[in-house]
Write a structure and sequence with these properties.
199 residues, single chain, two-stranded antiparallel ribbon, elongated, mainly alpha
Length: 199
């Protein structure tokens, strides 16, 4: 029993380590905003959230961003990037996992339409929550961390919000695609069996 209870913790730690590596392999896609990077660190968090539960997905996201923070991200942007990465990551994996797990519990299997619904809802979630967080955090970041002139802040804020919103939408589509192709199709039987055993 004790060994069984340790499995989720061990799996969470392993997935967080993989997520941290994927985070550092991120790359910019907008020349005008090189500080916004596309990475695939939310894929391990998504897997943890679906199989183990939303809390474990958030834990993977939190650990991964903490590793990134202590590994040098704080010096680059005072932790702003890690904060936003954590928020938008959680905004995606939590609703996705809730929808998929509830559908699996109700129908005793993971259906394709449930995965697609989870992806659509999560894309909306990541875009809306990311937009909301940016409108709150970015003015404070540019004013008190970067030290920009108040007259120039909002032009920079809205430019960043536009790019980050597009980035979040792209990330959401990629996560939905990966969740469907790499998680749902090849691993469906394994996931269903494991999730049923954890009820």
């Amino acid at each position: 029993m004790r060994r069984k209870s340790l499995v989720p913790i061990i799996v969470t730690a392993l997935l967080a380590a993989i997520a941290a590596v994927l985070y550092f392999l991120g790359f910019p896609i907008f020349p005008a905003a090189p500080f916004l990077r596309l990475d695939f660190s939310d894929i391990p968090a998504l897997l943890a959230a679906v199989v183990l539960g939303p809390v474990y997905g958030v834990a993977v996201n939190l650990i991964q961003n903490f590793i990134g923070l202590i590994a040098g991200s704080f010096a680059a942007h005072a932790g702003m990037g890690n904060l936003m990465n954590f928020v938008v990551g959680a905004a995606f994996v939590v609703p996705y996992a809730i929808i998929v797990r509830r559908a699996q519990k109700k129908h005793s299997r993971i259906r394709c339409k449930d995965v697609i619904l989870a992806g659509v809802v999560s894309i909306v979630s990541i875009v809306v929550i990311g937009f909301g967080m940016n409108t709150i955090v970015l003015p404070l970041f540019f004013r008190f961390i970067i030290g920009m002139d108040p007259a120039e802040i909002w032009a920079m804020v809205w430019s960043t919000i536009v790019f980050s919103t597009v980035l979040n939408a792209i990330k959401g589509v990629i996560l939905t695609t990966v969740g469907t192709i790499l998680i749902y199709l090849p691993l469906r039987g394994v996931l269903e069996k494991y999730m049923q055993g954890r009820r």
